[in-house]
Amino acid sequence: MTAAGRAGVPILRLGDVLVTGLLNELDDTTAAAFADELTNRIAADGARGVLVDISRLEIIDSYVARTLMELTTMARLLGARVIVAGMRPSVAITLVELGLRLTGVETALNAEQGMAALGWRRTQQPRGEAPRDAQR
User: Which Gene3D superfamilies does this entry report, sorted A to Z (predicted)?
Assistant: First the structure.
């Protein structure tokens, strides 16, 4: 299986956090395959956190919204916290207009804030200086 997996959506592992993103066009079949694959990866990798970047998602429908809610519930049952990051204003407006609520889904303005909420901190090394671990 490729890094993109069956659903065609890459799922990367950074320590004990999985990072993935949804593409602009996400049909019902792909959404279901993505949710299945991601929950399997959570269990297999022992992930404690998942960041789902939806900044490229321009349209959301009730099925994709429900899939995100179910994915969050399944991940919590497996011991992982899910944060959905990068929601566009048009997607938020559509959710409100359709009366859809992402019950139980944590959100962050962007991927960097989502990773920080999961315990990741961006550190900048001065140019030309080795990382601290390498200096020991």
Answer: STAS domain (3.30.750.24)
* pLDDT value for 113: 95
Domain holding 93, by residue range, is: 11-118
Q: Specify the number of domains making up the chain.
A: 1
Strands lying side by side in the sheet with 81-85 = 11-14, 17-21, 49-53, 81-85, 106-108
Question: Considering all CA atoms of the chain, what is the largest pairwise distance in Å, rounded to the nearest integer?
Answer: 56
Q: How far apart are CA 97 and CA 21, in angstroms?
A: 24
Residue 14: phi and psi, rounded to 5, are -120, 95
> What residue type is 30 in one-letter code?
T
Which tens digits make up the pLDDT trace of 29-70?
Answer: 888 888 899 999 999 999 999 999 999 988 888 888 888 889
List the helix and strand counts (H, then E) for the chain.
5, 5
Locate tokens 């949710």: which residue?
35
